[in-house]
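user: can you give me the structure for this one chain? tokens are fine.
assistant: on it. calling the predictor now.
[tool input]
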Amino acid sequence: MGVDAQAQTDELWRRYVAERSPALREQLILQYAPLVKYVVGRLAINLPTILDAEDVLSYGVFGLIEAIERFDPSRGLRFETYAIPRIRGAIIDSLRSLDQVSRTVRQKARDIQRVFVELEQELGRTPSEEETAERLGITVERYQQVCVQSSVLNVSLEQLLAGDQDDSGGRTPLQGVADSDSPDPATIVERREMIRHLAAALAKLPKNEKLVLALYYHEELTMREISRVMGISEPRVSQLHAQALLRLRAHMRRDVPAEA
């Protein structure tokens, strides 16, 4: 954004904060609407077949509007940084409210995490898809399908560190320790320990899953772009992403003690 454009944006925010005018809010919505498309393009989830892109975009717009209404420019934070997680959250909350993930899939996701831990302890290494599917008593194809279906439950690596709720509605091991602004020394130490555990879990992932996470979170590529880079299908990228998050969540639950 050029200097003049930034100055105009700053002035728009100043007027909106002072006046709370619906017309000014509409201008901000139009200006930041591309953020919604950006977030939707980077969502690593398997969208329900009853939805189309317009449905998902509309959910994101609700998140954008809420972010605009709550944003405080005086704090010195870029609006994009503030808005993106809220847009993502609005989309995910809306998708979860549709309850497209059945109880069977939720249970299978928990079963996969349990089997990951069991097999790793038995084998002394990360189990393959074939080994995991065999222990679960399902085909590899069905196992991959469940991973993709469970992607709505395992949204992102960021949410593992943000204390997102697990698929059963309970608290993850990271719940309550994600506030990096907290002055509480115990909380800071706890969070560092969580990050250490997550780093150790990441190191154990298979190479293809590590690559998907690196391209998605570090390079910020979309699922489609990752599929082109890796030479695999977009659904396979989504499955690898979901499988990696299931592995990480299993590691975190195993390694991090529950709160007293």
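assistant: here you go. The two ends are 49 Å apart (CA to CA). Residues 103-255 form a domain with the Butyryl-CoA Dehydrogenase, subunit A; domain 3 fold (CATH 1.20.140).
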